[in-house]
Amino acid sequence: MIQSTIEFVLRNIPEIFFVAAFVLAAVTRSPAYFPARLLGWLLLSAGIAYVWAGAFHLLFPQIAAASIGWAVSPFQFEIGVADTAIGLVAILSFWRTLDFKGPVVGYLSLFSIGVAYGHIRDAIYAGNTAADNFGALLIITLVHAVLLPVLYLLARKNSA
Q1: Cβ contacts of 37-40, under 8 Å, gap ≥ 24
Q2: What is the mean pLDDT of the chain?
């Protein structure tokens, strides 16, 4: 039972932290404006998920590639470094101002659009419906692409 629970958690870190971001934004009270609060928690959860993905691409490329339905590639090192870098910056942004969060949101949104496009294209043209290519992670990626900039703009408007 304990082993299966640990395996479940480790396989679903991005999904768990994504849901936790909404729960924590709902139960915490700082900052007072909900969109700003949700923005911070989503950036923190995205950062954790990206560091997690980066670690897998860097340390366990066979596992990462298999979960996406792709072959192991030298490009995994590059995406692993990119995932880790933006993940760390997104985590840091949780404690920073909106001025700091803005570029992080911009990068994550644009990156998410590119990632989603690549995974959707792969599903359509190659029939790749692997869980981490065309499943919950794709939905989270699309939500990040749309919701992060909306929350940032609402928070910015409220702070003016």
Answers
A1: 38/151, 39/101, 39/105, 39/148, 39/151, 39/152, 39/155, 40/93, 40/94, 40/101
A2: 96
- d(CA 132, CA 69) in angstroms, rounded, equals 8
The tokens for 67 are: 């979960």
> Measured between alpha carbons, how far is 24 from 69 in angstroms, rounded to an integer?
33
Nearest 5°: the CA angle 144, 32, 105 is 25
Query: Is 78 within 8 Å of 64 (Cβ atoms)?
Result: no
Q: Kindly give, in sequence order, each residue whose CB lies less than 8 Å from that of residue 106, ignoring residues fewer than 6 positions away.
A: 149
39/41 Cα distance (integer angstroms): 6
Residue burial 90-99, b: 16+ Cβ < 10 Å; e: rest: bbebbeeebe
Measured at the CA of 140, the angle between CA 114 and CA 71, to 5 degrees, comes to 55
How far lies 113's CA from each of 1, 6, 62, 65, 140, in Å? Answer: 38, 31, 25, 20, 11
Residues 44-76 have pLDDT tens digits of: 999 999 999 999 999 999 999 999 999 999 999
Tracing tokens 């919950």 back to the chain, one arrives at 136
In whole angstroms, how far apart are CA 33 and each of 37, 121, 156, 157?
A: 6, 37, 11, 11
